[in-house]
Amino acid sequence: MSASLLAVSACGPLEGEQPAQAAGETPAPPAAVKDQVAKARSMLDGLKVAGRAPKTGYDRVGQYGQAWADVTRSGCGTRDNVLARDLRDVEKRNKCVVVAGTLDDPYTGRSLTFRKEDAAAVQIDHVVPLSLSWQLGAQQWPVGKRVAFANDPLNLLAVDGPTNSSKSDSGPDGWLPPSKPYRCTYVIRFTRVAHAYALRVTAPMKSAIARILDGCTRVLGAPADLKPLPESTWAYAAGFAKGAAPATGGSGKSAKPTGKDCPADAPVKGNVPEDGGDRIFHEPGSRSYAVTVPEECFASAAAAKAAGFRAPR
């Protein structure tokens, strides 16, 4: 390994979550399985049952914020935090950027090698998809709650990329993990997310979840006990939605670019890659500044870092 890479074997829990439930966690004993299933049934019974609303007005960035925003102020983007939690034999380029590791993929049951240069092979799945949440009640939430939801470790799992793509925005009535031993854990976690955020479910979703719970014999960890991010994150998270300036604790403000240009009072350019990779900022006078087409503009490098961007290397 090169000196620039840092090898780590574990990572602590993210804010708002109990100790990380990585994909390869040990199955719960029979008594704990019964307890998890009972808790899931209780939560499921407490969910409102109604149809999906239309997708009208859904906007990933505008309503749920820029991808993988650092809403917990950990100093790292959400994607890297989840990779560090769910992979084993993790290698990092610096404090944040995960460049290699091994994923015990929960959705397929296969062991996958992650490399940064092929980042799409391992994707971060929203257990309750964002567009589905929009149709199940999130339209009525304050924007900060939606941005927190999009970055909440409770609702995120590192998984096989193609399998995640096949899921799209389906609920448990339309899609379940190909790995049957993981299906009970999956529907319990789905139910926990829906309950924690007071989302409704459709009648077919509730029936599909109940059917899986009826046959549960194996659960990984304790998904019914995981905690959502606290409401105290919502105000800060709201700043990552399109058209809003992230709260930066006095370190500066953000603004929207015009083409390749940033305004004079927010000259630092920030790039948000579509593939979920690192968000990078460029200061005036730097090598790539003139050719960079930004998605965000910041008053200072400190403001960009506070929003989850890193300097180029």
Count of folded domains: 2
| Beta-strand residue fraction | 5-15%
Secondary-structure element pattern, one letter each: EHHHEEEEHHEHHHHEEEEH
Largest sheet: 4 strands, antiparallel
Assign the structural class, choosing from mainly alpha, mainly beta, alpha/beta, alpha+beta, or little secondary structure: alpha+beta
Number of distinct helices: 10
Span of the ends, CA to CA = 18 Å
Mean pLDDT: 87
Rg, alpha carbons:
20 Å
Structure description:
The protein is of the alpha+beta class and 313 residues long. Helix 1 (30-45) packs antiparallel against helix 8. It has helices at residues 30-45, 60-64, 78-86, 130-135, 143-150, 161-167, 183-196, 203-214, 234-237, 301-306, and strands at 6-8, 88-92, 98-104, 111-115, 122-126, 156-160, 254-255, 268-271, 280-282, 296-298. Helices cover 28% and strands 13% of the residues. The chain has two domains: 6-239, no CATH class; 248-313.
